[in-house]
Structures are given as structure tokens and as C-alpha cells.
Amino acid sequence: MLHTRTTPAERRRAFREQLASGRLLRIPGAINPLSARLIQDTGFDAVYLSGAVLAADLGLPDIGLTTSTEIAARAQQTTRVTDLPVLVDADTGFGEPMNAARTVQLMEDAGLAGLHLEDQVNPKRCGQLDGKTVTPREEMVRRIRGAVDARRDPGFLLMARTDARAVEGLDAAIDRAKAYADAGADALFPEALADVSEYEAFREAVDVPLLANLTEFGKTPLLDAATLESLGYNIALYPVTLLRLAMGAIEDGLRTIAAEGTQESLLPRMQTRSRLYELLGYEEYSAFDSAVYDFTLPPGN
């Protein structure tokens, strides 16, 4: 009721233990706090907060227009309602190394289990698009070191993302990843790998946990969990899947209502009132105050 049953430190410890287990973690991206509860109920390992999703939720493109405080506010709303570890996309750290350092502390305070920083030039763009520009390797190393120095809880995971594959080639991306791990990154996120051989090359080159970004309609093949586990990857990330599903359903629903003048035909596709109330934990609130759950749901809800 109202909050999680675990502390941020407990969730950070659990996340690190899961990453060290050798088992592939499956992490969908939430579109709001309620969907994070559903991710937990469905049995996934952690929750992700995508910068692209958070920007889209505000009606903005993913080009670095959101702020660190906006991201931290949504993160805190999410960590309040799920006992799963939550990993957040912190873009470039929202500025220079000092900004990245402040971002780490904001995200720690928001109850997150970790974040990732990327090596694009600020303002950035979606990692699956052409025309990206990456910062010099030395600058990204400073960004990571600033983040490491600012971290107060050693359990908080600092992940480095490199977008260099599409800009400088695979070998350069691997060299950058090694440098980022040497600078203190706990895990690595190679963006926009082209095929299985490139996944293999990254796994052979580094010995820290690796994330596979399985975003739809992009440059990366949608590898299944069994394949990724056999390749030795630690995280299968589905960052924008729920947003795309939800927005597709919303568009279809709006067109149906506009065409038919009623939502009647949409009812079988809707989450029922009873399921929503179950997810929200209405009955748990009655243990605190019976007056909040003293009703009977209508039939068929």
C-alpha cells in the first residue's frame, strides 16, 4: 500500500546479484508507474525507464530536450510502486562531467538501482538513427569518472553506453568500451550492433556485464532470449515495446470510437475494472481504512 516493501539499497544489491548470476535478465521499459507494477506482476527481472519513452510521454522527440530533474521525478514515482530494481537512461548526463556527477546523485536519491550514460555529443539523438556524433573518448572517460566520484552508494550501478559502432566502426566501439570499463563503468551497453557476430565480438572483448538493446524498427536484430543467453549477455532490454503497444492500441481505439460512435466493440480488448483495481491494490488499502473499499464491483467488470 502506497509504497514498496523494499529499500533502494536492497534493490541495488538484488540487481547486482542478478547480474552476477550468469542468468539473462529480461527488462521491459515502463511507460508510467502503473506499468512498472504490471512488469513486476508479470514476473520480469527489473524495470527500465527509457529516455525516448519519457520524452515521447512529454510530446517531445528524443533529442536531449528533457532535463535531469524531469527524469528523476518520473524515476521516483516509479521506484515508489515497484519492488523490482529500476534502471534509468540518463542520456549524456545532461551536460559536462560535473552535470553527470549531479545526475548520479539525483538518480540515487530517486531510489534507482542504476543508470547508463552515453558517449554522444549533447544534445543527443536516438541511438538507432543516423547522423549521430560521439564525443571524444577522453571526454567520455571524464564523464564516467565524474559519475564514479559522485556516487555515494557503491551498490548503485553505473553503466556506460557507446554509440560509436555506427559512427567509428566496431573496433573503435570495442576500444571505447574497454576504456569506459577501465574508468569505472560497472556494465556496458553497446548500441546499434548489426548482427550476432558483433554481439560475439563484444562479449569476447570485455568481462563486465553486457546489455543487448532490443528496440523495434531499428538497426539491431531482435534476438530471442535463448540466443542472447548463449552469447553470454546479461540483460535483454525492451525499452520502447510497451509504449508502441499502448500507442498502437490507443490509435485503433480512437479510430473505432470515431467510426462507430461507441466503444462497445472495444470492451474485449480493455483491461477490466476489476483487474485495474487488483493491480492498484484496492483491497490492501481496506486494511488501513475500510471506508476506501466498501463497494461491490458491477457484474462483468
Topology of helices and strands:
Elements: H1 8-20, E1 25-28, H2 33-41, E2 47-49, H3 51-57, H4 68-79, E3 86-89, H5 97-109, E4 114-118, H6 137-150, E5 157-162, H7 165-168, H8 170-182, E6 187-190, H9 196-205, E7 211-213, H10 225-230, E8 235-238, H11 241-260, H12 273-280, H13 282-286
Parallel strand pairs: 1-8, 2-3, 3-4, 4-5, 5-6, 7-8
Helix pairs in contact: 4-5, 5-6
Descriptive account of the structure:
The structure is a single chain. This protein is an alpha/beta fold and 301 residues long. It has 13 helices and eight strands. It has a five-stranded parallel sheet with strand order 2-3-4-5-6. The protein has a three-stranded parallel sheet with strand order 1-8-7, with no helix packed on it. Helix 5 links the parallel strand 3 and strand 4. Helix 4 packs parallel to helix 5 and helix 5 runs parallel beside helix 6. The two termini are 22 Å apart. The mean pLDDT is 93.
- Residue-averaged pLDDT, rounded? 93
Q: Between the first and last Cα atoms, what is the distance in angstroms? A: 22 Å
- Encode the helix/strand succession as letters: HEHEHHEHEHEHHEHEHEHHH
The major sheet is characterized as: 5 strands, parallel
> In order across it, which strands form the biggest sheet?
2-3-4-5-6
How many β-strand runs? 8
Query: What is the approximate shape?
Result: globular
Secondary structure: helix percent: 40-55%
Radius of gyration over all CA atoms, rounded: 20 Å
Strand portion:
5-15%
